[in-house]
Amino acid sequence: MKKIILTGLIAIMTAVGLVGCTEADTVSQNLSKSADSFEVQRRVVFFNGITDKYLLTIEGLCSITDEGGQLEVTCKVGEGQYKKHYLGLSDNVSYFVEQTDAKYEDAFHYKVLFRPEAIIPDIDLQTSNELK
Q: Residue 82: what are its φ and ψ, rounded to 5°?
């Protein structure tokens, strides 16, 4: 009986711990997902930390991925059109990302985005115009 009560208590504590995400955590996750879906205007600025000079600025509907020594910036430039930039980082070159427009995100709505192109492969269908 004690084992059943102990197991139930551990399960409840685990569930409470998982639900304990703050409103800021949920909104931050939703904003990140929106940005990765090219729904958020951003400005990415690269600067030299020694000279304090800006090296490069990228603005638009951009998704960023920090791969350690390089930053990958993918921007939507038109309907179905994208550009990707790879930028090397060093000990004196860094970056910051600014969200330039406010975006409404519901703290009580959790986003899960499925990308059908990642699940279903792109198949090119070629048919003959002539019947034989």
A: -140, 155
Chain length of the chain: 132
Residues 6+ apart with CB under 8 A from 110: 26, 29, 30
pLDDT for the residue numbered 121: 59
Token pair 């090119």: residue: 124
Give the strands of the sheet with 70-78, arranged side by side. 81-88, 70-78, 54-66, 41-48, 93-99
Contacts of 66 by beta carbon, 8 Å cutoff, 6+ apart: none
CB 37 within 8 Å of CB 61: no
- Is this structure's pTM higher than 0.85? no
Distance CA 59, CA 88 (A): 18
